[in-house]
Amino acid sequence: MAFDLDVAKRLGETEVALRLDAKEGITVLFGPSGVGKTSVLNMIAGLLPPDRGHVRVGGRTLFDSATDVPVQRRRAGYVFQDSRLFPHMRVAANLHYGGARASMVDAIAHMLDISHLFDRWPRTLSGGEAKRVAIGRALLSDPAFLLLDEPTASLDRVRASEVERAIADVRDELGLPILMVTHDRAEAERIATGIVEMERYIPPR
Question: Taking the complete model, does pTM exceed 0.90, yes or no?
Answer without folding.
Answer: yes
